[in-house]
Amino acid sequence: MLLHILQRQLDESTLCPLCQASMYWIEAEQFEHELNFHECSHCQHQVFIEPQHTCHCTQCMAQRKKLLAETRLQEQRKLKAKDKTEYELSQLSFLHKLFLLSLLDDQVQEHIVHDEYIHWEQIKYHPISPNYLFQSSLIKALLKEQILLPKDFSDEAHQYYVNVRLDGYSEPSLFSITQQLRHWFYENLSLGIPFKSSDEVKEALYLLLYQEIVQFMQFYCRTWGIQIAGNQNFQKFCYGLMESLAIGQIYYLIQTGLDYLYQQKALQPRNDNFINTNLLKKTLQQYRERSLTEKWETSTLPRLPQLPLSKMSDILFFKFLGYDERIFVQPVWRAWKKIEPRLNFYSQKRCMYCGSNELTVDYDAEHYVSMICRNCKHQDHYFTQ
Questions:
Q1: CB 102 within 8 A of CB 315
Q2: pLDDT band at 284 (very low <50, low <70, confident <90, very high)
Q3: What is the pLDDT of residues 150-172, one digit of tens each?
Q4: pTM (2 decimals)?
Q5: Distance from chain centroid for Cα 276
Q6: Residue 220: pLDDT band with limits 50, 70, 90
């Protein structure tokens, strides 16, 4: 901007709106036209009386550049909107629904102020799942499948919104999504089910219990400053143990194995190429073979009170499946034998008159359910076992 400065006076009664420094009152000419304005004595920000003039200080230029970039990104987003994958909330896997509820349940409450975004940086170290690596893999899976999408133009890193439809509507509120998930997981299946078959729940149950095992061995090794993690071979081995042993018994085997390896100074500070994981697996295999051959009785170690119970485990074990601490002290197959019939019933239920699965629970006892069909209004009574 070509200006001919006629007079510059310091006006200490006027402060810069950006940095609060005193400003100059400037009388100038531009192309023989009189022009008066304030200019900051520190950052050169200019405040004009006439709205047609704009400031060209560093901050204003950067702000205009950012607005232009945001406008271009917004236009690109509109062009790509047609290609964006959008799932119905009910289409998500049981595990992803469970993880979403674990993310949102404490954040989205009627009495707590919240916005429409998941602020991952603020909560990523919270005990949402049994261990951080599992938690990180779940968030990556939701991003890959576009169930979570990054907030555009965010100054804060890792802000996501939930990209799902609810009851056919796009962009439902976070509160609506959370309430629907609560209906599925907290209402004893009377307001709908979050799974397609009982096998989907069984897979999630085994996976969460395995991640509890990983959490236990990481917690135990942390006191020694030693890294350890799970891998596919170790997971397969633990699944085999869960067919005959309780989680508490597996805890005892792991504690015994880790103590032995630590005393032998076999564990490395870093778990490069899963060296510690593979050593532990080999040791546990030997223990298990000897215990079967020599008919040892494997002790049961209760879940350590120092271990924080993750939100996912709390929802799945205690609220959704209605179990208690016995889930850790008896074989999984025994717990599943009690859980499965009810889940199977709800996943396969149909109206006996018209075949619709749009049923409302009218009365629900432990082994007996009365339902009304929303399609034909027919009422029937069922035994779940």
A1: yes
A2: very high
A3: 876 554 568 898 999 998 888 89
A4: 0.75
A5: 28
A6: very high
Q: What is the pLDDT confidence band of residue 363, given thresholds at 50, 70 and 90?
A: low
Q: How confident is the model at residue 338 (pLDDT cuts 50, 70, 90)?
A: confident
Q: CB neighbours of 110 closer than 8 A, spacing ≥ 6?
A: 175
In sequence order, what are the residues at sequence separation of 6 or more whose Cβ sits closer than 8 angstroms to the Cβ of residue 106?
311
For residue range 22-35, what is the model confidence (pLDDT) as tens digits? Answer: 989 988 887 777 88
Three-state secondary structure call for residue 352:
coil
Phi and psi of 38, rounded to 5°?
-100, 145
DSSP letter assigned to residue 376: T
What are the backbone dihedrals phi and psi of residue 159, each rounded to the nearest 5 degrees, phi first? -105, 125
Task: Write a three-state SS string for 267-335.
Answer: CCCCCHHHHHHHHHHHHHHHHHHHHHHCCCCCCCCCCCCCCCCCHHHHHHHHHHCCCCHHHHCCCHHHH
Q: Could you give the CA distance from residue 142 to residue 367 in angstroms, rounded to a whole number?
A: 36
| Cross-strand pairs, 165 | 88, 170
pLDDT at residue 153, rounded to an integer: 55
Long-range contacts of 140-149 (CB under 8 A, 24+ apart): 141/96, 142/96, 142/99, 142/100, 145/85, 145/87, 146/84, 146/85, 146/86, 147/87, 147/92, 147/96, 147/100, 148/118, 149/84
What single string gives the DSSP state of each residue in 229-274? ---HHHHHHHHHHHTTS-HHHHHHHHHHHHHHHHHTT---SS-GGG
346 vs 74: CA distance, rounded Å: 44
**Among the residues of 105-197, which ranges form H helices?**
120-123, 132-144, 174-186
Nearby residues of 150 by Cβ (< 8 Å), 6 or more positions away: 143, 158, 159, 160
Q: What are 106-121's pLDDT values in tens digits?
A: 988 888 788 888 999 8
